[in-house]
Amino acid sequence: MNDQHEFTPEGQEDLDKWSDTITVNVYPSTHDGDALAVKANAVLENYKSHNGRVLRTNSVPRTLDRPAEHFIAVVFGRPNFMKVAFARFKLVDGVGCSGVYSHRIYGEKVADQMSAWLKDNGPKMEKMLMEPNDIPSPASLRELQHRQGRPLDAKAPHSKT
C-alpha cells in the first residue's frame, strides 16, 4: 500500500495465517543520514507504542563512502500469536528505505517456542539483514507495481519470494 511492499513465501498467501513476510518500506522524503535516523527512531517509538519489546538496536556509523544504517529487532505478543520483526534502515539510491523480516508463531502460549526460534535464528537474521546486500530500490518496486498492472495494496495478493 502506497510506499509499503509486502511479500510472503509461496504457500503463505493467506494473510491471516502467514509465518514469514518481508516488507520493504520506502520513505520518499528521506534523503540523508540524519533524516534516516529520525525515521528509524520514529519506527522504534511506534513499535514501543504497540507494546513491542525491543530485543536489540544497532547503528552502523557512516563512513566516507556510506551513510549510517540502523537495525531494530522487536517482539510483539498477541493473544493468538507472537511476532518478531527485524528491520534494517538504509539509503537506497538516495532515498530512505527499510527492509523488515517478520516471523510469527501461532498459539496462545508460544513464548518458549519464540524464545527457542530467536535463539536459533535471531543472530543469523540480523547478520543477513545487515550484510552489504541490497534492499530493492524504490524504482524497482515501482516497476514491479507497473508490471503487475496495479498498485500493491492490502487487498491484492502478495508477491511470492
Topology record:
Blueprint: E1 4-8, E2 20-27, H1 33-49, E3 53-60, E4 69-78, E5 81-92, E6 95-106, H2 111-130, H3 138-148, E7 159-160
Parallel strand pairs: 1-7
Antiparallel strand pairs: 1-2, 2-6, 3-4, 4-5, 5-6
Describe the 3D structure.
This protein is an alpha+beta fold and 161 residues long. The protein has one domain (4-134): Protein Transport Mog1p, Chain A, CATH 3.40.1000. The protein has helices at 33-49, 111-130, 138-148, and strands at 4-8, 20-27, 53-60, 69-78, 81-92, 95-106, 159-160. A seven-stranded mixed beta sheet has the order 3-4-5-6-2-1-7, sandwiched between helices. The two termini are 18 Å apart.
Q: Output the CATH topology.
A: Protein Transport Mog1p, Chain A
Structural class, please? alpha+beta
The CATH level-2 architecture is identified as 3-Layer(aba) Sandwich
Question: Total number of β-strand segments?
Answer: 7
Order of helices and strands: EEHEEEEHHE
Tell me the number of structural domains: 1
Helix content: 25-40%
Radius of gyration: 16 Å
Number of helices: 3
Short synopsis of the structure:
The chain is α+β, with helices and mostly antiparallel strands and about 160 residues long. Helices cover about 30% and strands about 35% of the residues. The protein has a single domain, classed as Protein Transport Mog1p, Chain A (3-Layer(aba) Sandwich), CATH 3.40.1000.
List keywords for this structure.
3 helices, disordered C terminus, Protein Transport Mog1p, Chain A, 35% strand, 161 residues, globular, alpha+beta
